[in-house]
Design goal:
By secondary structure, the chain is α+β, with helices and mostly antiparallel strands. It has two domains: about 220 residues, no CATH class; about 270 residues, Alpha-Beta Plaits, CATH 3.30.70. The chain contains 18 helices and 16 strands. Strands 8, 9, 10, 11, 12, 13, 14, 15 and 16 form a nine-stranded mixed beta sheet that branches. It has a five-stranded antiparallel beta sheet with strand order 4-3-7-6-5, sandwiched between helices. The protein has a two-stranded antiparallel ribbon with strand order 1-2. A hairpin with a 2-residue loop joins strand 1 and strand 2. The longest helix is centred in the first third of the chain and has 60 residues. The radius of gyration is 44 Å and the shape is elongated. The protein starts with a helix and ends with a strand. The relative contact order is 0.06.
């Protein structure tokens, strides 16, 4: 924490900056001071503008009176010498003498809107364009009111002025000032005062920081101790010697008091990894041997050919497993799954343990399943690249090296099932584990085993398929078979989930052929089924060709295939 940025804005912890309390207090009070002063200055400006408008009105009335008298005189001259152009020039020249700004305006407007004369630096117009203002003057004239104040728009500028009807000329005489130009001096004063306010506020803010640093110095002591403990993953009492008797010191004492409680909670957390169990233990400060029926989704994954790998790699298999599990478990956690157990090459994960996750638990489990298969595929790709590199350098591999290469080509299968299970803590109060028990748990393991038989990476149950289709349209489900696994008395449908992004026309066509063949297979028309399977390029078709080629459906065929192995 030696860099200037950290000294001012606080140190970063796990990518998040811990902003000092002193800085927050100073910023808040500075903002309040600036807002208060700016508001006061603005209110003062608005009140002064009201007074300015009043004074402007008096000046404009004076100018308008002079214009009106001069117009009357000109009309008398016009009566003897009917030169209207000369009269207009005289009216404009007389009016412009009282103008104070570049956009000051004097006009004569006939009731129908025609401009009789216009004095000022703006481009002359033949028609008065503000119909609303003209209508107000006409309405007032109709009621016998010949003069008044007026706000109107002229050539894109907003004006404030006064008017008086000249019955001799039959025009409304208008004397007005453009508001932006009129307010320019007050805006400049407002800006200068605001800059002064900002400067004074900054000075007082710096003084305030120095004073607050002294008063709240033990806030920094407490924060530094907590950051050090977090970095060292340790918990200890803080030294508050010399601290004043205020609420900041009380917070430090409260932290020391909580340290022992946190130690106890840490002991509880180490016994569990499931999020709901950790949350419940933290909330209730105890754990009990109990469980409930829950509707969850179970993911079971296993590494294929693990016996060959173990025989080939020996104790190095641990490194390979850790490399695989490190990434696989991360992906499971990314999709809100919890690890139920890890037994050698097999991993069981649970989805839906937290209330807000249950709605999408099957979707999350399938996404995790695809990520797990990607982890294995990426590892195989990396091993293939290394093998190619060695072949380029040496030309060949020894037999032992080839065996090692084949052993590290991880391939996994994933089974997904869900439904009502028992979920809770079993064991004793000396040592307990969080587990999930139920027929669907066993079923997920059986489904994983079927991935070897049907040559697909993931197989799910109808329960998982139905729940995913309710919440997501990212996947298509290919029905593979109706099977009765060993140890069960009922058959169930099994499905191969395929992500829509990988569905091209060829794959869709092969799936259609397989589905047609499967339908004929269920109906007992095995001859037609084989014809469809022969045209299908999916590897799973080989399973059915081998199963039924040259055979007929047995008597009483119900479409369910009985598995003789687990």
């Amino acid at each position: 924490m030696n860099d200037p940025l950290s000294r001012v804005f606080g140190q970063k912890v796990s990518g998040t900056r811990v902003v000092p309390l002193i800085l927050k207090i100073v910023v808040i009070f500075t903002v309040f001071l600036l807002v208060s002063n700016f508001t006061t200055n603005y209110i003062n400006l608005m009140l002064n503008r009201g007074e300015q408008i009043r004074l402007l009105n008096q000046l404009l009335v004076k100018d308008l009176k002079e214009m009106h008298v001069f117009a009357g005189n000109q009309f008398e001259i016009f009566s003897f010498n009917p030169d209207e152009a000369a009269a207009v020039r005289n009216l404009e020249n007389a009016a412009v003498r009282n103008h104070r700004g570049a956009r000051s305006l004097s006009m004569g407007v006939r009731p129908e809107g025609a401009v009789f004369f216009q004095a000022g630096e703006l481009e002359r117009q033949d028609v008065f364009t503000d119909e609303a203002a003209l209508e107000r003057m006409r309405s007032a004239l109709a009621q016998g009111v010949e003069e008044g104040t007026l706000r109107f728009t002229h050539q894109g500028f907003e004006y404030f002025g006064v008017y008086k009807y000249s019955s001799s000329w039959g025009i409304f005489q208008i004397r007005a000032e453009e508001l932006t130009e009129f307010y320019a001096d007050s805006v400049r004063i407002f800006r200068d005062v605001s800059l002064i306010i900002v400067g004074i506020t900054i000075i007082f803010a710096l003084v305030g920081i120095l004073i607050l640093r002294r008063i709240l110095r033990f806030v920094r002591v407490i924060t530094d101790n907590i950051m050090r403990m977090q970095a060292e993953q340790s918990l200890e009492l803080m030294d508050l010697k010399g601290a004043p008797n205020d609420d900041v010191t009380y917070l430090g004492i409260a932290f020391n008091s909580l340290a022992n409680t946190i130690d106890n909670l840490m002991g509880i957390f180490k016994k569990f990894v499931a999020r709901d169990v950790a949350t419940k233990a933290y909330r209730e400060r105890e754990i009990r041997l109990e469980g409930t029926k829950r509707e969850l989704t179970i993911l079971f994954t296993d590494i294929k050919s693990f016996t060959f790998m173990t025989e080939t790699l020996g104790t190095d298999i641990i490194k390979l497993l850790n490399l695989h599990y490190d990434q696989a478990i991360r992906h499971i956690h990314d999709y809100n799954g919890d690890i139920g157990s890890i037994i050698g090459d097999a991993l069981l994960a649970i989805f839906g343990t937290v209330e807000e996750d249950r709605e999408n638990k099957s979707v999350q489990s399938l996404r995790s399943a695809y990520k797990i298969t990607e982890v294995a595929a990426n590892l195989r790709e990396e091993m293939h690249k290394r093998r190619e590199l060695i072949l380029q350098q040496r030309g060949s591999l020894t037999e032992a090296e080839e065996n090692v290469y084949r052993a590290v080509l991880l391939e996994v299968g994933v089974g997904l099932d869900g439904g009502q299970v028992f979920y809770g803590n079993i064991g004793s109060y000396e040592r307990m584990v969080n587990t999930v028990i139920g027929d669907n748990v066993n079923s997920s393991a059986r489904l994983e085993g079927l991935t070897r038989f049907y040559k697909v990476p993931i197989i799910c149950s109808e329960y998982v398929k139905d729940e995913i289709m309710e919440h997501s349209h990212d996947y298509a489900f290919v029905e593979l078979d109706r099977v009765q696994v060993k140890g069960k008395t009922l058959g169930k449908k099994i499905f191969w989930p395929v992500h829509q992004s990988s569905m091209d026309e060829e794959l869709r066509h092969d799936i259609e052929l397989f589905s047609e063949g499967l339908h004929s297979y269920y109906q007992g028309d095995w001859v037609a089924a084989v014809e469809h399977f022969d045209r299908c390029k999916l590897v799973v078709s080989d399973v059915f060709r081998e199963r039924i080629s040259g055979k007929r459906a047995p008597e009483g065929w119900n479409g369910i295939w009985t598995m003789t192995e687990k």
